[in-house]
## 1
Amino acid sequence: MKLNGAQILIQSLKNEGVECIFGYPGGAVLHIYDALDLSQEIKHILVRHEQGAVHGADGYARVSGKVGTALVTSGPGLTNAVTGIATAYMDSIPLVVISGQVSSAVIGNDAFQEVDAVGITRSCVKHNFLVTDINILASTVKKAFHIAATGRPGPVLIDITKDVTIAQTAEKSYPDTINMRSYQPEVAVEAAQISKAVDLIMSAERPLIYSGGGSVIGNASSELREFTRLLNFPITQTLMGLGAYPATDPQSLGMLGMHGTYEANMAMHEADCIIAVGARFDDRITGNLDKFCPFAKIIHIDIDPSSIGKTVSIDVAIVGQVRAVLSDLLQALKGKKTAEIANWWAQIDKWRSKDSLAYSTKTGVIKPQSVIQALYQVTGGEAIVTSDVGQHQMWAAQYYPFDEPRRWINSGGLGTMGFGLPAAMGAKLAEPSRDVACVTGEGSIQMMLQELSTMRQYSIPVKIINLNNGYLGMVRQWQEFFYNKRYAMSYMDALPDFVKLSEGYGHSGIKVEKSADLKPALIEAFKQKDKTVFLDIITDPTENVFPMIAAGAGHHEMLLASKDKMQSTDDEGLNLV
Amino acid sequence: MRHIISVLLENESGALSRVAGLFSARGFNIESLTVAATHDSTLSKMTIVSIGDDGIIEQIVKQLNKLIDVVEVTDLTAHEHIERELLLLKIDVNSITQADIDKQIDDFSAKIIDVSEDTYLLELAGKSQKINDFLATFKTTKILEVARTGVTGVCQNRENN
């Protein structure tokens, strides 16, 4: 039987186990849409903007652990998708994005809706392909899924010319496996490195585990728990790693970095041995590199060799899947005795007693932190929480303790405003039985608001927690601290009536202006299981995110609350922003 | 320090731009870059000369290895190796004595490959330093055109490439 390229593509996606694809049609992908519609086997979510399609697929991938899939047309379809692709790339999320391309006969002629998709996306994909030959279409799809999901995961783009989707060829069986001589993601863990790490771990007197997104993406949560508990070491997690180790466990020091807890950052500064697990020493974690972990020997476990030694020099590098390396370490550590660390725990408890996440309450205003705490209570800590980018993102990370991986979904690397709503949509589709909350702000939500329409069409219920303070809060916070309170363009004037807006899209909405109304409103929203509810919560416009490591400062130079005098940040420090 | 990095990669369209794009996106320096197919038509060999401290060169090698099309990366500078570069040099021979020019050519074992009324086209292969030295023997006013291929190289032992 003969099939056209579009049919081969859809067959290939089915063979890859794709259940759900987010997309938007256009000229170059009409044949693909025709084949998709006829096959009826893959659920297609028609988004309202291609960026929403990729974020949707991304949210789906982060929650399910599967490869997310999006389909967009050529030209503007692809360029709209780029922000989504770059977001996934920075957070190492496995995606396959399929874009239509003009016919191969007119490539390079500045044809209608033509852009150089492979060129535009090159620096924000793990790999990309331009397919101009139907005979390599199926094997390219196989390669794309293989590359996206293995090693350090990431987005892969397949750009397919329209003539390939139309051309016909005899049906062939889909390849079971693919072998690429230039891509061998399986790495054997070096035993010598394990034993060096064990030596350091056993003699450490002030040890600290620093775990990142790799522990979540690498499905290493149970090994990480076993490892941490066996050693009785303290553990801190990055924004991307939250949930791999339970936040409510006594060994957890909370998040580290720019807005991390006092105990986590002080422990980083004072530690004599840091075990970095699937983390990449990003600038939001390290602060000023010259002041970073001055006393520590560092063990770094990562699947990506280029992450090791990139910004911070490492004493013991272990390249491998986080899960496999932790298993090897556990094996090697069984029955061994580590150094006595009671004094270290006593010191940590002293730092903890500062209660660095305490905040002052004021009558008459709703504190944004209290909203997140109420959300935690109402959902029993069991919801999937997505966020946009800004102050609300930090508050969600700080005040909603995640005890399980793949429950906290945010754009940590690229910091993409607009991510939260479409990601929530993808999250809900990946796990329909779990409550999904999108914590956002009145700035971020307006960047992808149109997806409310998609959520209506497919009845995807999400609770939107809009921390509405009338400001681009994080921008305002920096302007307050570092720009002498000159609030250039950070005030959001002429905001819509979000309740009416939500109702206009066929959802419900509740405006919350008093603290007393907060919890009842949340309870009411989550009671409406099958509805998207927009909670527009008016919060304290002057609140700032604390603790904070100002630009150019070290971990031991944290600012704990607004009463701390903000030291002046020099030009060098501001460059670190 | 100057490093010569040899990259074996899939002979696919776009492979060159992946490498070049990586260098510009990450702010790595390229002194020269050469690329051509090998005896295996599915593979290309690229030779890149870059300057950087050990940390930067380590990152360059790691980042190159991360590219999906890259099969093998070797820092030739870390091994016994041979490097060569080809120079084509057009000079103005007016007011230069034949004896002078013959001596310059002999000293470097260069070749005259084309002659016109008042120009010579010279060819010289060798290490980059030799080519620099050869060029330095000519007054800049006499140099009409310089075309250098950039460095290519191989490891001397059998194991590496």
## 2
Amino acid sequence: MHKKKKIYGLIVSVAAFILCLLFFEIVLRLTYPLYANYNTEMWKYASKMKQISYGDSCHSHLPETSMNLYGAKITINSQGLRSEYNYSIEKTKKRVILLGDSITLGWGVQNNETFSKVLENYLGENYEVINAGVGNYNTYCEYFSLKKYSYLNPDLIIVGFYLNDFEQIKYPSKISYFFIKNSYIYSFFFDKLSSIPRGHYVDFYKKNFENSNNQKIVEDSLHKISVYAKEKNIPLVLANFPEFHKFEEYEFYEINNYLEFLSKENDIQYIDLLEAFENVDPKSLRISNEDYHPNAKGHKIIAKFIYEKIHLE
Amino acid sequence: MIKKTFKFLKDYKKWWLTPMIIVIIVFLILIVLSIMFSKNSQMPFYYALF
């Protein structure tokens, strides 16, 4: 009798635990606008607008999706690019393709405020700029992206580089992916846990950079991109975004020098965007106090600087 | 039926109450921690998914 009660008790405990979690899941879904922030919006972007391929390649945008995220509307066309229209294979204008991560995508800024759109306006009516930026992409993924969109025949390739491109992306297993992407509890937990300090951003980025395996992946990927560009006779540019916490007493000159060296080695034009932000207050460039992605002002500065540096026929 | 359910819940009170209290306490701890560190802006970009 005693043993039977214990078994029943355990079943009741598990059921109560599941019910309790379900209750919180419903509450968190209903009250989402009250606690939405950078982390939860990034989770929403990944779970509703991205997909994993589980092959050799990387995640990509879900075609034909549109969402308001962190105050900006993000529209993905049927080709998986941030654009309100599709690009035809036959081109009527010269094409510039931008490869990169959430900065290139234009996280937190409107479709027409992204540096790809501003650059397009600078270049004039004979050019179109294709924004192939995908959140959390690194150089490894950008090589796959370049091959994927090679059918669009770009006349110039610009690779946007940010410090976290040294980081390798870890994808969840199929089962945990299902729960992670559908669970508001997970998003809530992740957000709360990530607020607990785990180290300074300088140490985090430097540690990623100093990992020789990470460096090798960046080197190999950049080399592959440059080989592709040379074979097709397309000019290639590496635009290195600065870390947006502070520009004075900048902490990552070593990484900039390394990227400049890699660019030289691979015949890539190197653009150091840190120079573009000289005498600019970094606080005036943030999307918000918790999100250091560049805002519309930052995108304008990036577009203008790239426009002034690139050499087009 | 209702009487039986109430009796069952009463008999197993500690079994269903304990996990519920644990879940609530974990939620409360996380909320308190995130309020304590809400002004921490020295973090790199982390991703909840990918």
## 3
Amino acid sequence: MENLILQLKNQIIEVLNLEDMTAEDIDAEAPLFGDGLGLDSIDALELIVLLEREYGIKLSNPAEGKQIFKSISSIAYFVSKNRKK
Amino acid sequence: MITLAHIRITPSETWLNGKVVSNSNINGIYREFIGDYPKFFKMDSLCKLGFIAAELILKGQTPELKENASIILFNRNGSLITDRNYQMTIADDHFFPSPALFVYTLANIVTGEIAIRHKIYGESSFYVLPHQDDEMINDVVNKAYLTSNPSFILTGWVDYDDDDNYVADIKLVTK
């Protein structure tokens, strides 16, 4: 799980253009939206695309998103259970 | 029309009110003079260019004056550089479009980015012209005063062709 969390951090830094930020700067338990990284709705769409492109996961139920994208840890847990690649 | 301030940004030099203030590229100018707006890095090149020009030229303007200001910008290439980048993301049969790129496939988004940052609530518009036609630009800016009474207008040319060819030539003007 630690490797997956690190991989997700680096992928998120890349797709969201979080320049000047490294994986060490991101707390895996911190909220991604609002406080914490302060991501917005467009970033949420990028995360959905990231899960599909990198892990073959299609989010069929948008209502699940709030729980899945709560933190890097929650994304990692979801990916580990549902990844197709 | 009275010019309150003028900025010109090219890949090699940034001039503010007739003086060279930087020789950095766009990201370098952001780090030199701004540095407190992480959303900058998510913007496309045109928005970054317009954003840093607005940051430098609006320094010293009060929130009260900015609230009632207008933004009228012009260029030749529209959002072509981002349109191309976005097109590349959807060229493959199994494409994964990028929402973060897609939102910048309109040139007038730069006026929104500036308005959000500076809480400018006056009218804003963006025109695509065949070339930098100062007569046409002045005509459009003058007409803005027929329908509203902005405290000042942030106006000028902001055009991004590629990383070696871009220019922001922007003024703050008032009646």
## 4
Amino acid sequence: MKEIKVLGPGCANCKNTTSLIERVAQEKGVPISLAKVEELREIMSYGIMSTPGVVVDGKVVHAGGVPSREKVELWLA
Amino acid sequence: MLDEARQICPTTTRRRVAEGAVLVDVREQAEIDRLAFDVPDIIRIPLGELEKRYVELPRDRELVLACQSGGRSLKATYFLMFQGFDKVANMEGGMAKWASKGFPVKGEASSQQPGAQDAGGCGCGTSPSGEGSCCGSAAPGEPSCC
């Protein structure tokens, strides 16, 4: 199971990113563990200056803006 | 997980700067034009440019990050901690609190600021000089912080 974290203060883009990941995972039938990280110190512990950030299995794969669907599909491949 | 950022008030910041710390203002140019910190050796890097420009900051001096109210500079403080800076602190209350204490500023709005007590004060009364007063508990080694 992929461990995914969406880093951000709860902004609209963060929520849209979370929804997109959930939707793509469901469509592809990929089991994921999705967590939202909203606390500044924890977000900054990944060195993310632009949110939302996305961490997959401990690695930062995205920072700033809602990721494209194609990008999300690659993470879940 | 990063440690909690060290936070110091404007009074302590002013003292640290006098002792050799560098104030780093992460506000935008328009904000600085309106009201700027008037301290020596200040470094100005807007938060949006920090990721590219943090290498300009000295690692051998204490850095105190500041913005308008203390939020953006807290993020900047954590970013520098992530990048391995160990002598960094955030100035709580930012320019709003600094100016409300009558500390040195310059710029278009400076004529309205000295002595103003409307933003970010201690919340426990005012000090005539704005310096050296303490309200509430001070952290160890921070004798004049509110």
